[in-house]
Amino acid sequence: MDFYGFTPRSRLFLGTAQYPSPAVLQKSVEAAGVDVVTVSLRREAGRLGGGQDFWALIRSLGVRVLPNTAGCHSVKEAVTTAQMAREVFGTPWIKLEVIGEADTLQPDVFGLVEAARILCAEGFEVFPYMTEDLVVAERLVEAGCRVLMPWGAPIGTGKGLNNPYGLRALRAHFPDVPLVVDAGIGLPSHAAAAMELGYDAVLLNTAVAKAGDPAAMAAAFARAVEAGRLAFEAGPMEPRDMAAPSTPVLGRALLG
Ligand SMILES: CC(=O)[C@@H](O)[C@H](O)COP(=O)(O)O
């Protein structure tokens, strides 16, 4: 599995927003053992001092940065933010979010495909935050995306995998495209479930940042992602409707 030529050791990608303090963010990244963190350029650029301390902290983590266009609601905004991110972080990677609806933060898939086409043509390596729609996925691949990131559930809800059927179909349809479940993960068991479906990685933020003990939760997620992957590779049994004794009885016990 590689993401535009980069093979991370950890299949967990972590967001960097909403932590109680920079120190807790740092401890969480270390506890998770992640190689990739995502950073919102718009959110951080708006902070006092242009977020310089924040950038310095992120750089000091020694991990690969996946800048994102969180908070962008139009193609123009997302493209401009991506161009700024490339300047700031010196990376062609961009997690592309074009939000289409305020209540669910659902991606505007039409704008997403348009923005992806523009950015891929400009040499960006695009990680599109999308719904699990197969047709949208096809269009994004045609646009030049070599990674797809369907949502598990709306951002920040912690609901887990809203549509396992759709996620399974996407996996089956794109066996060779790296797939990452992004957003809506609330518990380590949700992350494990995504990995058991054969997803290549999981990206999450709120579930760790808002946990009572973010660093401990980050460690729990790291283990769940590893366990889910291991289970997928081990080849899970097929579920069945009829009971089947797991300890077949040979002969009869002689009583009395
Ligand atoms: C940080 C980031 O990129 C989020 O937009 C992402 O989608 C994670 O969502 P959760 O906060 O629901 O994990």
Give your account of this protein's structure.
Pathway: Cofactor biosynthesis; thiamine diphosphate biosynthesis. Catalyzes the rearrangement of 1-deoxy-D-xylulose 5-phosphate (DXP) to produce the thiazole phosphate moiety of thiamine. Sulfur is provided by the thiocarboxylate moiety of the carrier protein ThiS. In vitro, sulfur can be provided by H(2)S. This is Thiazole synthase. It comes from Bosea lupini. There is one protein chain. The protein has 10 helices and 10 strands. It is α/β, with parallel strands linked by helices. It has one domain: Aldolase class I (TIM Barrel). The chain has a 5-stranded parallel sheet. A 3-stranded parallel sheet has the order 4-7-8. A two-stranded antiparallel sheet has the order 5-6. Helix 1 packs parallel to helix 10 and helix 8 runs parallel beside helix 10. The chain binds 1-deoxy-D-xylulose-5-phosphate. 1-deoxy-D-xylulose-5-phosphate binds next to helix 9.
Rg, Å, rounded:
20 Å
CATH topology call: TIM Barrel
Mean pLDDT: 94
Number of helical segments with 4 or more residues: 10
The helix fraction, in percent, is: 40-55%
| Strands, total number | 10
Q: Which keywords apply here?
A:
TIM Barrel, 5-stranded parallel sheet, 10 helices, EC 2.8.1.10, alpha/beta, 256 residues, 3-stranded parallel sheet, binds 1-deoxy-D-xylulose-5-phosphate, globular
Quick structural summary:
The chain is α/β, with parallel strands linked by helices. The chain is built from 10 helices and 10 strands.
Summarize the topology.
Blueprint: E1 12-15, H1 22-32, E2 36-40, H2 41-45, H3 52-60, E3 64-68, H4 75-89, E4 93-96, E5 99-101, E6 106-107, H5 109-121, E7 125-130, H6 134-143, E8 149-150, H7 164-173, E9 180-182, H8 188-196, E10 201-204, H9 206-209, H10 214-234
Bound molecules: 1-deoxy-D-xylulose-5-phosphate.
1-deoxy-D-xylulose-5-phosphate binds at residues 15, 17, 38, 68, 70, 95, 129, 155-156, 182-185, 204-207.
